[in-house]
Amino acid sequence: MATNYKLERLNAGRDYIADNYQAPLSLSGIAKYSYMSPYHFLRVFKDTYGETPNEFLIRLRVEQAKKMLITENFSVSEICEKVGYTSLGSFSSLFLKQVGVAPTLYRRKLWALSTEAYRFPSQAIPACYAYHFLGKLAN
Fold this sequence. Notes:
Strand content: under 5%
Organism: Thalassomonas actiniarum
Domain HTH araC/xylS-type: 11-109
Protein name: Helix-turn-helix transcriptional regulator
Keywords: DNA-binding, Transcription, Transcription regulation
Structural class: mainly alpha
GO molecular function, one term: DNA-binding transcription factor activity
C-alpha cells in the first residue's frame, strides 16, 4: 500500500497519463514525472490501482475512441490517430479485445439504434434506456 506521499506522486503520474493519452507516452517518462524509477512506479501503480500504467492508458484510449465512434463522424483511422495510436491494426486489435467487437461494427450497431443518421443519443443515456426509448427491445 502506498503512503500519502507516494499516493500523491502516483496520482500525478496517473493524471499525466489521462491528460496526455493522445501523445506517445513511455513508462520512463511517466515515472520521471512522478519522481520514481520506472520499475518502482510500475510496481506501486499496479499494487495501488490494480492495473499497469499501460493497461490504464489502453483503457482510456479505448473509452475515448468509443465516445468518438458514436458521437463524431471521423473515420476509424482518424479516431485511431486522435486517441494516440499510429497503427490501425494495433488499435483495432486492442479495441476488439477490450470491447468485444471491432470499431466499425461497434459504430454500426449503435448508429443503427438512432433515428438520426450518424448520431447516437447522448452518452449519458444508459444503453438499456436507449434501447427502450428507441423501441429496439426484443418483442
